[in-house]
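Question thread 4412

I'm putting together a teaching handout and wanted feedback from people who do this every day. The idea is simple: show students a protein as raw sequence, then show them the structure tokens that encode its fold, then repeat with a second protein so they can compare. Below is the first pair exactly as I plan to print it.
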Amino acid sequence: MTSKKVIFCDFDGTITVNDNIVAIMQHFQPPGWDTLVDQIVSKQISISEGVGRMFALLPTARKKEIVDYAINNVTIREGFPDLLAYCKQQGIEFLVTSGGIDFFVYPVLSAFPIPRQNIYCNGSNFGGSHIEILWPHACDDQCDNECGMCKTTIIRRYDNETYERILIGDSVTDFAGAKLVDTVFARSHLIDLCEELKLNYYPFEDFHEVVARLKELDKS
């Protein structure tokens, strides 16, 4: 029996050309944000701790400015609508698994035919003096990475006997998930990890390449 295909697709730096969290921080320049990024990348602190502390540097009084910037400065990677169309045609379940934040992930993706329940991201609270990040999809008892939005928790809901699991991503938030799936489409830092661990991966620059490769794999 042929396994059902499911795709777990990152948002920042994958669906979008730029990393939106980094872009927000670079634009508003809260003191100390760059040190936190370095600590996340070097794994001195967890993703959830780093992201939470970065956004806690931004005052909620600037909410409209921050949200408008986040939404209006996004560039979608070429070929994304074609990937969604191919998934619909082939009956491939498509999930967005994002370490991004709801106030920009949902508005940006509202332009595409993705069911809301298929979009996983972090939440936000603008009720206090500074932005608070919420974690509605935290790690399960099999993950202690303090991911924030735990991609491996979601991947494990799709057992490998029933599903052929495919991950599309680019960076540190995708590392753990890449080790679990059957096939990885990788960019940027994720390529280095796939090479190091000899994972089954294909590099890509746009989603046209992903669709072409999926078609080839379907024929093989």
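The second pair follows. I'd like the answer to focus on this one:
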Amino acid sequence: MESKSFIRDGLKLKSTSILFLLLSITQMTLLTAGHYKPTWESLDSRPLPQWYDDAKLGIFVHWGVFSVPSFSLSSEEFSSEWFWYDWKGWRYPGVVNFMRKNYRPDFTYADFAKAFTAEFFNANEWAKLFQRSGARYLVFVAKHHEGFNNWDSKYSFNWNSVDVGPKRDIVGELMNATRSQTDLKFGIYHSLYEWFNPLYMRDKSHLFLTQDFVEQKTLPELYELVNKYKPEIVWSDGDSEAPDVYWKSREFLAWLYNSSPVKDTVVVNDRWGSNIGCHHGGFYTCGDRFDPGVLLAHKWENAMTIDGHSWGFRRNADLSDYLSIEELLQTFVKTISCGGNMLMNVGPPHHGHITPIYEERLRQMGSWLKVNGEAVYASRTWNYQNDTETPSVWYTKKTYAQNTDIYAFVFHLPEWGTLALGAPTVSKKTQVTLLGHNMPLSFRPAPSQGLDIFIPPLSISQIPCKWLWVFKITAVTN
């Protein structure tokens, strides 16, 4: 094992076994006394808290020891947060050669941790920037597959952000800043497995018939995170090698829904076992950058990246690797039109100052949502996701009493000033406006279904936003 910290972790974990046994008995007592039972049928019957469906946009933050090497080659299609695994697993020549050329032969991954300095990390500045983006929730990576804890954990010795590197409780600082400076919901990402943890490797060698890692590391951490930081999203990952029975996922979720301090508001995803994704959970992710392009029956989330190749920061990224604001907005609109939320990832460098390209994209998203948020927040899916005549138009709706208003998101304004829509059926009460302009626009109903919207010439100062425009069509009858 290349990291002595893991050996010390193993010794410390043994000393906490009795403590966790007592904790487990307490948690099991609480979960069996509640409304939700540790079965998927029962857990899936819990209604999704409405705040999540209303929110539409969240910010994902990947930050850890992997932010120190912060290296990957887009040509090899691997992400920088998998650096350790790709290096020691010899999966990609680019990583192996990078280490061979730049570091001494006996350099270990654990040696990167002291350079995870976070000297420019300011939780208040982060929180305010995320608020300005128009996002309504934050999911921060408390622990990725490397096993490094970004909080002061009783279940990690010298492989966490308090004992090495920043010497700070990153999760705690960001939680406090988020809740004191913004109205964002605070959530955490937690990896169930750790690539090279000896306890996990031993369970794996036993074909997951033993559960020492789960009982001494995974579950204690999850209970600790929820009780200490009260996250309203628990975003699980790292489940793919073992089924939910090994992870004891159902037992944890029953406690989370019945007895935890966030039992009424918490939301979870679907990564709770190799057999669970896209089948069970509060919302489905189904895979990274999941974008089905059609309406799904179950609430889902598109977890995606501004850097098209990586979740963690890459020092060697090119400008062309980052999605433009037009690409981000088009992805966002298609996502919410099909019933999903978008979780947009930011990868800060090791020092903790969010780089200008990420800041620009976040501010651009926020400026667009200031104009068009009415069509986004608390909207619902309509009968049509995209238009039948102009396919680059996508829809959301809002219903008030007996009236349904729809919002047409237009990727490209027509050259000749007439926007032809085939899906809406208008009524005598229908009005059409361009969000941010607010003056009623003239339109011509089609004989049976659809309408032509006449867009007047607008000066630069009259155009409400730079990218992707939204037309509000009130009182439609379909």
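Top answer:
Good format. For the second protein you could add a caption like this: Confidence is low (pLDDT under 50) at residues 1-16. The two ends are 64 Å apart (CA to CA).
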